[in-house]
Amino acid sequence: MKVFGLGCAGRISHESILDMLTFGPEITKVTIADYNEAAAKEVVAWLDDDRVDAVKVDVTDTDATAKLMEGYDIVVDGTQISLNDLSAAAICKAGLPGINLNGMSNEWDLDDQFKSLGKTMVPGFGMTPGITNMMAMHMANMLDTVESVRCSHGAFRPIAFSASIAETTRVEYDPDLPSRVVFEDGEFKQVKPFARPMDIALPEPYGTLPEYIIPHPEPLTLSKTLADKGVRLVEARGTWPAKNMRLISAMHEWGILRNPVVNVNGTDVGVLDAIFAHCLGSEEGTTTDLYGYALHVEVIGTKDGKRERHVMTHTHPASDGSVEDWAGLRAYTRNVGIPMGIGALMMLRGQANGTGTVAPELAFDTQAVFDEMEKREMLVQHVVTEPDDVLETVNG
């Protein structure tokens, strides 16, 4: 099996490739394809595996990118959000199955084309979206009806350890972003940054933190997938380290997130551009006190006429250096990257469902994904309680 790792010179997606090489003996070749050829070659050296090589690719040239993909069995797409429309188009043009991390672009527009090819495209299979979808679907399958789904996460990483992460930060808190929506009573409602705060109890060492609505795809896909169970509310929330959130909140209050242009010594500069340029080159922007990832997904519904509250969380090895491969930033990047590697291996093994653009919760068997996570020391917990103590959403 041959894997085309598009944009996989990044610190998250090269963890996807490492996972596939570690757990996929059927993998015979992996090509790290990136615009930054030097970074791609660094990843080849880091992986230190004879099955891996590197090639330069410019994803803005769809035809050339698709041509490079010829002869491969799957495309693992680690490109950033702003490039996913182009990368998905190239994957489709090459006639290959694909999987990416973000699921926040127009992959759905290619549904019919992927179907006509008999191929599967899974958009957004990292931690969130991705494993959150698996958790929500797993719990929903245990219920006769579903009232609400609340997907929450804590991503404990620096605000700008890479350009693509800095872009994600900017996109998610863009004041006018149309995709920051919740599904409520049959319609999608756009909300502003820091809307609907809710205290979410994440597993230790993260603890209970305020979380806010974010522009992730779970409300879009789960509202359709669970329509036959009567779902009325689907929300996605998230948080980053406290100092990140304080900075973003202050920039929101001061209008900086709109990126106003000011003139400094005769040069026009976007204020937000300047701040993120500083973050990308500073210790404060590229380090944080605690690294890792935590999920909390709640599903409320009924079983045999009785209301139940199901909650799933996940834990992973500590980032304190006690487990070498999970030390520091890798406790974050491995959490995000490994699920895409798991999904890609399952696709290569014929364990993906359907053709076309397939939502994560429909693409894979949930328990099979959890079993694969356990092999990687990523453990899922599940509790069922009475729903009476559930916090209500606070509109904001």
Estimated share of beta-strand residues: 25-35%
Percent of residues in helices: 25-40%
Tell me the number of strands: 18
Assign an overall shape: globular
Structural class: alpha/beta
Rg value: 20 Å
What is the end-to-end distance? 49 Å
Total number of distinct structural domains: 2
- Number of distinct helices: 14
As residue ranges, the low-confidence spans are 391-396
Q: How do the strands and helices of this protein lay out in sequence?
A:
Layout: E1 2-6, H1 13-23, E2 29-34, H2 37-47, E3 52-56, H3 62-69, E4 74-77, H4 84-94, E5 98-100, H5 111-117, E6 120-122, H6 131-140, E7 145-156, H7 163-172, E8 181-184, E9 187-190, E10 198-202, E11 207-213, H8 218-225, E12 233-239, H9 242-253, E13 261-264, E14 267-270, H10 271-280, H11 283-286, E15 292-303, E16 306-315, H12 330-348, E17 356-357, H13 360-363, H14 366-375, E18 379-385
Parallel strand pairs: 1-2, 1-4, 2-3, 4-5, 5-6, 6-17, 7-12
Antiparallel strand pairs: 7-15, 8-9, 8-12, 10-11, 11-12, 13-14, 15-16, 16-18
Helix pairs in contact: 1-12, 3-4, 6-14
Description:
By secondary structure, this protein is α/β, with parallel strands linked by helices. The protein has 2 domains: 121 residues, 3-Layer(aba) Sandwich (Rossmann fold), CATH 3.40.50.720; 198 residues, Dihydrodipicolinate Reductase, domain 2 (2-Layer Sandwich). The protein contains 14 helices and 18 strands. It is globular.
